[in-house]
């Protein structure tokens, strides 16, 4: 790591120690054609990704004392496409659950779709929500009772909530094999419940009490909204700036990995109100 003053988003030695084994293993399996180890430290590549995640800056606005944009992009796309970002995320989730006395794999999950306004010009993968003028996407999260993300699905905003729910059920069933129950909101319909039966997951719709008025957190399922609030600390996720849905999903994994690494090292997350 360079001698410069680290950014607030930069990895501490303790947090890097949690991620380094996965990165080092990946690097060993992907040697350069010429045989050299690379001109940039892997820790600095991850620091650049976390800096962009927290600040929301464009690629070309990454600080000059971080690795070049081309190098950071290269690793972001590589790790996105081969699942390294999710591997890091899943390993950290396993450690957090173990540290909390929970089973390494979650017993059940809950999900909710959230619409994200997209950047103008990215028309190929963005669609408009019904009755809305702005293009965007719909982000669905599968979250366990501890508020840890199990999986992420990003679809066009025009997709029905059922499509997000069915995609989440498929990914959770494929990735864990231990989830037995899902709590979802009233946006999901019978199609999601029926699909849950096909993949072995009991889907329960959490109904709102008609006698209440205003905002009332729904039992247990409120943890999903808490996670959505936490992701807003990462400005790259406040809007959907990515060209491909896979990149949007990868941004969530990096943001939550950063949070879990801080949880494991008892490091607080800087807020926007620090000034």
From TrEMBL:
Pfam families: DDE_Tnp_1, DUF4096. Residues 120-138 have a biased composition (Basic residues). Residues 122-228 form the Transposase IS4-like domain. It comes from Streptomyces rapamycinicus (strain ATCC 29253 / DSM 41530 / NRRL 5491 / AYB-994) (Streptomyces hygroscopicus (strain ATCC 29253)). One of its GO terms (biological process) is DNA transposition. GO terms for molecular function: DNA binding; transposase activity. NCBIfam families: transpos_IS5_3 (NF033580). Residues 11-89 form the Insertion element IS402-like domain. Residues 119-138 are annotated as: Disordered. This is Transposase. It comes from the Bacteria. PANTHER family: PHP DOMAIN PROTEIN (PTHR30007), TRANSPOSASE (PTHR30007:SF0).
């Amino acid at each position: 790591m360079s001698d410069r003053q680290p950014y607030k988003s930069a990895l501490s030695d303790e947090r890097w120690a949690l991620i380094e084994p996965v990165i080092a293993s990946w690097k060993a399996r992907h040697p350069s054609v010429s045989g050299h180890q690379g001109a940039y430290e892997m820790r600095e590549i991850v620091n650049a990704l976390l800096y962009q995640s927290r600040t929301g800056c464009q690629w070309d606005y990454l600080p000059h004392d971080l690795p070049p944009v081309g190098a950071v992009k290269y690793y972001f796309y590589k790790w996105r496409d081969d699942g390294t970002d999710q591997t890091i995320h899943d390993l950290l989730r396993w450690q957090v659950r173990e540290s909390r006395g929970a089973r390494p794999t979650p017993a059940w999950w809950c999900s909710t779709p959230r619409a994200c306004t997209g950047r103008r010009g990215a028309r190929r993968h963005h669609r408009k929500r019904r009755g809305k003028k702005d293009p965007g996407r719909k982000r669905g999260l599968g979250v366990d009772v501890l508020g840890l993300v199990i999986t992420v699905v990003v679809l066009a905003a025009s997709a029905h909530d059922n499509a997000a729910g069915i995609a989440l059920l498929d990914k959770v069933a494929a990735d864990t094999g231990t989830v037995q129950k899902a709590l979802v909101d009233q946006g999901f319909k019978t199609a999601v419940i029926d699909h849950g039966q096909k993949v072995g997951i009991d889907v329960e719709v959490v109904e709102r009490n008609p006698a209440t008025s205003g905002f009332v957190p729904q039992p247990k399922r409120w943890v999903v909204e808490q996670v959505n609030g936490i992701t807003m600390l990462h400005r790259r996720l406040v809007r959907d700036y990515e060209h491909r849905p896979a990149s949007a999903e990868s941004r969530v994994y990096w943001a939550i990995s950063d949070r879990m690494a801080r949880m494991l090292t008892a490091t607080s997350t800087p807020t926007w109100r620090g000034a």
